[in-house]
Amino acid sequence: MSGQSWLIAWIGKTDHEAAEGKLGKDVGPIATALTGEPRYSRIYLLTNYDFARSKRFCAWLEKTTGYDSKQVDLYQVDLESPIDYAGIYAAVSANLKGAGLPREDVELTFHLSPGTPAMAAIWIILSKTRFPAKLIQTSRERGLEPVNFFFDLASDFLPEFLQRSGERITRLAEGAKELAPAFDKIIHRSTAIRQQIELARRIAVLDVPVLVLGETGTGKELFAEAIHAASPRSAKPFIAVNCGAIAPELASSELFGHKRGAFTSAVADRKGHFREADGGTLFLDEVGDLPLDTQVRLLRALQTGEVTLLGASKPVKVNVRIVAATHRDLASDVAAGRFREDLFHRLAVGILRLPPLRERDQDAAMLIEHFLAQINADAKGRPEAQEKKLSEGAKKVLQSYEWPGNIRELYHTLVRAAIWSKGPSISAEDAQAALLQIRRQGDTVLGRPLTQGFDLKRILDEVARDYIARALKQSGDRKTVAAELLGFPNYQTFGNWMKRLGVDSTD
Ligand SMILES: Nc1ncnc2c1ncn2[C@@H]1O[C@H](COP(=O)(O)OP(=O)(O)OP(=O)(O)O)[C@@H](O)[C@H]1O
C-alpha cells in the first residue's frame, strides 16, 4: 500500500472540553493521538455535537498539533442517539462510503477513545469488516497505544448479516423448516439438542461458515448434512472430507487439487474437494488435524473465494460454504500454535456445540428404540430374521452406560447385541457382552475426565456389572459359584446386586 494514512474519529466531550481550556494540561484523546508519531496525511473527524463548537475544536487542534487546516476534515453526522448501535453503524458506514472508502491507497486508523462506548464498538466492527483499519486508543496515564484484536470477522458476511432483520432470518428459517426434513433425521428428546437444531436451522439459511464441536460420534456430520439440505445450496454437492485421514503431505492437493506433474506422484490432474463442492458445501471433518501450510491455503481460499491448484499459475474462482467439525479443543490448539487463530475465527462464525450422549437427557432411550426398529427393519426378509426386543435388564444396562463413543457406539452395540442374542429377546448379558467388546479396546475407568456429567456411582455400577457378567460366564451361569468367585458372602447378596444392576442371566 502506498501513500496516504488517515486518522478517523468522533469528536468526544473530553476533546471539546480540552479545546475550551476546561481540562488544564490535558489535551484530550484526539490531540494526544496527533502530537507524536505517526503523522497522518488526513484527519477525518465526525461530530454529532453543535457543528460550530466542533469547528472551534478543529481550529484549536490545528494550533495544538501542528496539522494544517487542509488536512483536517469535519463532518456533521446526525444520530438519533449516541448509544444506538444500529444508527451509528448505518450513519458511519454511509459517511465513509461517501468518502470513497475503503481505498487501496489509503491506510485507515480508527481512534477508539473519543465518543461513547457504542461508537467504539462500531469502529471495531467496521475495522474488521467493511473498512479494514488499524485501531488506536489513548489514555491520560499511558498516552497513545495500538489496539490489537485477536478476532477476524469475515468481511463478506457481517454487513449483510447486520442489515437483515431478525424477522427476516426467522422467516427464512421457518421456510427452511418445511424444506429441510434433513433435521428430522436427528433423533432427540433433550432440550440441548433441540436448541442446537433450532440454531442450526437459523444458521443454515445464512451463507456463513459453521464450526461444529463435539466428541466423536455425537452427530457432527449429520448436522452438517442437515445444514446443507436446509440451505439455498441444497441442490448442489455436499462433499465430506475427513481431514484426519489424509496424509499431511497430501492435504493441500486433496483439498485444492493439482496439475499433472506438480509433484512426483501427481500422475494425473486432480480436481480437489474445493472444486468438487463448487456451489455447494464442503464438510471438513477433523479440521484441527490439517497441517499448518494447508491451513494457510484454506484461509486464503476463504478470504479470496479462489483456489490455486498445485502446479498451476492462476487461481480459479470457487463458491463453497464451509462447515467444519472437530472433537478437539481447538482453542487450546490455537494457544499452542497448532491451529491458526485467524482461520479459527473465519470458520467459527456459526458455532454448534453437540453435547455427548451421556449429557443428553433421555436421548439414549429414544435412540435405542429408533435404532432397534431400524435394525429389525433392515433384517426383515432375511430367512433367519427374528424381530428382536430388548429385555428390561438389557435396557437398564444400555441406559446406564456412559457411551464414550456416543451415538455411533450405541448403534454398533445394538447391532452386535441383536446378532449375539439367540432368541428374540436381547438379554442383559447380550447387551453387556456387546458393550464389553468396545470397552476392552482402551478401558479408561480410572482415566475418565472429571467434566460435567461425571457420575462416580454410574462408573462403579459399570465395573460391577462387568465383573458379574464375567463371573456368570465363568461359572456356567451357576449363581452360587459366581457369588463365590466375586467374594460375596452369600447367594442372596449376589442376587440383589444382579437385580439392582439389571443383570439377569435368565431373561
Ligand atoms: N441424533 C441422532 N439421531 C440419529 N442418528 C444419529 C444421531 N446422531 C448421530 N447419529 C448417527 O450416528 C453416527 C455417527 O454420527 P456422525 O458421523 O454424524 O458423528 P460425528 O460427530 O461426525 O463423528 P466423528 O467425529 O467420529 O466423525 C451416524 O451414523 C449418524 O447418522
UniProtKB/TrEMBL annotation:
<dbReference type="InterPro" id="IPR025943">
    <property type="entry name" value="Sigma_54_int_dom_ATP-bd_2"/>
</dbReference>
<keyword id="KW-0547">Nucleotide-binding</keyword>
<dbReference type="InterPro" id="IPR025944">
    <property type="entry name" value="Sigma_54_int_dom_CS"/>
</dbReference>
<dbReference type="InterPro" id="IPR003593">
    <property type="entry name" value="AAA+_ATPase"/>
</dbReference>
<keyword id="KW-0804">Transcription</keyword>
<dbReference type="InterPro" id="IPR002078">
    <property type="entry name" value="Sigma_54_int"/>
</dbReference>
<protein>
    <submittedName>
        <fullName>Sigma 54-interacting transcriptional regulator</fullName>
    </submittedName>
</protein>
<keyword id="KW-0067">ATP-binding</keyword>
<feature type="domain" description="Sigma-54 factor interaction">
    <location>
        <begin position="186"/>
        <end position="419"/>
    </location>
</feature>
<keyword id="KW-0805">Transcription regulation</keyword>
<dbReference type="InterPro" id="IPR025662">
    <property type="entry name" value="Sigma_54_int_dom_ATP-bd_1"/>
</dbReference>
<dbReference type="Pfam" id="PF25601">
    <property type="entry name" value="AAA_lid_14"/>
</dbReference>
<dbReference type="Pfam" id="PF00158">
    <property type="entry name" value="Sigma54_activat"/>
</dbReference>
<dbReference type="InterPro" id="IPR058031">
    <property type="entry name" value="AAA_lid_NorR"/>
</dbReference>
<dbReference type="InterPro" id="IPR027417">
    <property type="entry name" value="P-loop_NTPase"/>
</dbReference>
<keyword id="KW-0238">DNA-binding</keyword>
